[in-house]
Amino acid sequence: MTDPAKPLRVVCLGGGWTAIYLARSLRKAIKRGDVELTIVSRDNFHTFHGFIAEMLTGKVSPTNITSPVRRLFPPARFHNAEIKSVDVEQRTVTTSRLLDGKEQVLEYDHLVVALGSIDDLSRYPGIAQHAFQLKTFADNFRVRNHLLSMLELAEIETDPVERQRLLTFIVVGGGFGGVEVATELMDYFRRLARKEYSGIDPADLRVLLVHSGERILPELATRQPKLIGYAERTIAKGGVEVLTGTRITAATRDEAILSDGTVVPTRSIISSSGTALSPLLDLMPYERDARGRVITDENVRVPGTDNVWAAGDCAAVPHPQGGTCPAVAIYGMYGGRQIGRNIVRQLEGKPLKPFTFAGLGDACSLGRRKAVSHLKGLRFYGLPAWILWRLFFWWFVPTRERKADILFDWLMAPFFGRDIVGVRVATPFGLRREHYETGQAVVRQGEVGQQIYVIASGSAEIVRETPDGEVVVTGLGAGDHFGEKAVFEETRRTATVRATSPLEVLSLGQAEARALAETIQTFGAAVRELPNEPEHNPAPLPGDAAPVTPAG
Ligand SMILES: Cc1cc2nc3c(=O)[nH]c(=O)nc-3n(C[C@H](O)[C@H](O)[C@H](O)COP(=O)(O)OP(=O)(O)OC[C@H]3O[C@@H](n4cnc5c(N)ncnc54)[C@H](O)[C@@H]3O)c2cc1C
Question: How far is the CA of 69 from the centre of ligand 1 (A)?
Fold first, then answer.
């Protein structure tokens, strides 16, 4: 029960756009002592997605697309932890701290659900293991460094096939995000090839934009189809290969497989399509729409409650012109602001006010200082649209210092070039899941071995390459492992292991495999000795000095 003598306790799940505008609209009420707002998020910073393409391509320094929440939310409180569960009966939220999982319970009078969205990692085999995502700052930082490392590797690669693989980049999803990334990448790579990577021929660079719909930029299809035509022509001139009506059906370490059967050798698949919703929503008893979003009424409140609100990507908020609001930042902002205003109105005993924001317009950058945009019904193309796009997004950067930092980056880049430091973040190899399609090699005979593998599902065969051709040594299935000899004895792979069906393997890095084998004797014995079991140890082939072990 709410105690009128105490401030109203509002807990906001998530620290994104919705939370920022909620905090702004509740600022006065917090200062008056009427409301106590606690924002819970796993990140102590906000990521500005509007400039992701600029960050990936060195126009903006990586951390300049983030803003510290400690300067965004006050006087609201900030609780930096993972949200674990919500008990709507008890009106509590349980969080666990990131250090060691220690739990805390927060009590609330009002709950704001603003959890945003997550990447859908179930869309095709291999997406989780081999495709890059653009959602979190860490995702984006990884992509940025990966792109530079591809150029470094390509410049010194002597095998033309591998070189082309390194210089082929696939962007999946032809919405605003995918188009901006693909077009900026093409421009960036060509610029770097001309200026800094003299060993790379710009003609070898390929950026493919794969889009399942018949036309790119579906966000503009009903409202501004003319802008799509301009965008299509501009993108084609810029050299990005657009594959519409095409899906990616599998991603592996070495290639992307497309729905028309084309296999594109690449080490860079960047995914900019397909979102899912936080599993936390499943813990709440509120009605959801067909996309899984929490349904709200026109006042942005969850029907059947008087103290639960939802906005942003995770909510189906009625749009004033019909339908529901799209999952873009500006609707999260205005939704958060309306929730704050209505909480205060409810506290003051006034009737709630409906959400009336109907949108300002859209803008999409197309690289090479061109864009398409529309604002309040007016259409813009080319350079004017690009200036509008940049100014519009810059205006919404949520802190003044980041606005200044970004402006500084933009002003300096023409004089000193872009930021092209590829930071190698030392991560241990660890345990990874990898996906392979039928016929693909997991390890190749003669390679230096750096991982051992366990088959999680699917089948494979061990093949010896001999002067007389290939000899299939044996088949492998779920639970079998291979690759130990090269890892433990530091020899080259003695055979190739190739998938004979779609294959999921767990791979364990050399250092980790050795540490485990030394520490857990049964593990060590299993991975070292199983290859000598009869079914994995067929008779030596002619000319073999030592018995064959699976893909050593
Ligand atoms: C690559 C990309 C490009 C985009 N480009 C644009 C663009 O150009 N223009 C545009 O308008 N929109 C763009 N968007 C969409 C825009 O970013 C979202 O619509 C907006 O961020 C939604 O705001 P939100 O408040 O709903 O959620 P978010 O801003 O996503 O915030 C969700 C918050 O919840 C937190 N959270 C979630 N689960 C937990 C948990 N279990 N524990 C703790 N914290 C949790 C997250 O850390 C985060 O702080 C883009 C999105 C992406 C991914």
Answer: 14
Asked if residue 83 has its Cβ within 6 Å of ligand 1, the reply is yes
The helix-helix angle for 510-519 and 521-529 (nearest 10°) equals 120
Residues forming a β-bridge with 310:
113
How many residues in the chain?
552
As a CATH number, domain 431-536 is: 2.60.120.10
The conformation of residue 541, written as its DSSP 8-state character, comes to: P
User: Do residues 45 and 68 make contact, with C-beta atoms less than 8 angstroms apart?
Assistant: yes
Domain 127-274+362-416 in the same topology as domain 8-42+81-117+277-347:
yes
- Measured from the CB, is residue 50 less than 6 Å from ligand 1? yes
Per-residue pLDDT of 134-177, as tens digits, reads 999 999 999 999 999 999 999 999 999 999 999 999 999 999 99
Domain boundaries, the chain: 8-42+81-117+277-347, 127-274+362-416, 431-536
Q: What is the CATH number of domain 127-274+362-416?
A: 3.50.50.100
State the sign of the Cα–Cα–Cα–Cα dihedral 273, 276, 277, 280. negative
Instruction: Residue 226: name the closest of 244, 213, 326, 234 by CA.
Output: 234
Q: How distant is the alpha carbon of residue 173 from its chain centre?
A: 12
Give per-residue pLDDT as tens, 12-24.
999 999 999 999 9
Look up the pTM and report it. Answer: 0.89
117 CA from centroid of ligand 1 (Å): 6
Atom number in ligand 1 closest to CA 280: 41
